[in-house]
Amino acid sequence: MTQPAVDTPAGEQQPVNVAVTGAAGQIGYSLLWRLVNGEVFGARRVNLRLLEVGSGLKAAKGVAMELMDSAFPLLSDITITDDPMVGFKDAHSVFLVGAKPRQAGQERADLLAANGGIFGPQGKALNEVASRDVRVLVVGNPANTNAAILAANAPDIDPRQITAMTRLDHNRALGQLAQKLDVPVTSLSRMTVWGNHSASQFPDVSELLVDGKPAADQLDKNWLTDEFIPRVAKRGAEIIEVRGHSSAASAASCAIDHMRDWFNGIPEGDWVSVARPSDGSYGVPEGIVSSFPCRLVDGQWEIVQGLAIDEFQRERIDATVAELVEEFDTVKELGLLS
Ligand code: NAD
Ligand code: LMR
Q1: Is 141 a pocket residue for ligand 2 (Cβ < 6 Å)?
Q2: Tens digit of pLDDT for each residue in 187-196?
Q3: Where are the domains of the chain?
Q4: Which positions ≥6 away from 263 have C-beta within 8 Å?
Q5: Does the domain formed by 167-329 have CATH 3.90.110.10?
Q6: Is 197 a catalytic residue?
Q7: Class of the 16-164 domain?
Q8: N or C: which end of the chain has fewer CB within 10 A?
Q9: Measuring from atom 3 of ligand 2, which residue has the nearest CA?
Q10: Ligand 1 pocket, 197 CB below 6 A?
């Protein structure tokens, strides 16, 4: 008798269709191998759809050749295309990485017009051909507003299924805090990043726990405001400055964390930072894609309710949300929301 390769319930053996745009780019090169090694989709086989612009298709073919050469047992099929209607067909999990990265000295807002035009057509294609339970993560910057454009162009997809990545900011904060407190990152829970994936973001430790106990008393207020918050918020620029390119392996790793958690859940009692369309919680206008503390409820990222917000937090949240509203108004004026 033949043994199944992996012992999982029969219903979980259906292949998962996973689309990645920008597949031949820096982030794609770190991301793709971890999509087929079982850590995100468990024992399900993976049909990979690699999306690139025309000039990137040859390099994407090279990436596909290397994936084949890695002989992953769970890699079922690879499609290479520049057509979102092909790449997103019946997609269950979509990573929208393809965009133009920021150069030294540029702010994310500079990328609005350049990258905004990509996400309208991609939203329309998702709306038309993706699986109705598709889970979408926008990584390409400006990620929050690109996700807002996408959601506006995909009216038949539940907006909660369209997210943008602030997990990198969340994990950057955990890295800094673990070093400061001299504990492993696994000791930390309930970290929150609010707002935009930009220098205006608010990494907030008000609810942070260390080994289940409040951490606020162990952290110096001046260190938090003068070093921690700006260090995390400006880490992207710091990496560009030091490495000479925008972060790639860390971004891919955090995209994996985001999607893995979405498919598999997070530890009881904890939450993670997810940028999703606001439902009006914490005074963030509806439709704006903002980072919030989120937990999974019935497979959707729901915003953790009832957290006390003091004056300092209010000011910081309002500032980053004001930037998001400004970006939203700009793309509206550019006609990118329909
Ligand atoms: P890269 O230039 O190495 O790769 C981008 C790839 O996207 C290129 O191969 C390009 O041909 C492709 N591409 C461009 N438009 C496309 C489209 N419409 N469809 C399909 N493919 C397309 O860049 P990278 O370093 O991989 O970064 C990608 C994006 O991710 C950038 O916008 C960067 O700023 C952003 N980023 C976001 C975070 C985050 O935390 N949200 C972190 C790091 C980087
Ligand atoms: C990052 O945070 O590393 C990326 O968003 C790249 C950037 O432009 O900062």
Answers
A1: yes
A2: 999 999 999 9
A3: 16-164, 167-329
A4: 40, 41, 42, 93, 135
A5: yes
A6: yes
A7: alpha beta
A8: N
A9: 236
A10: yes
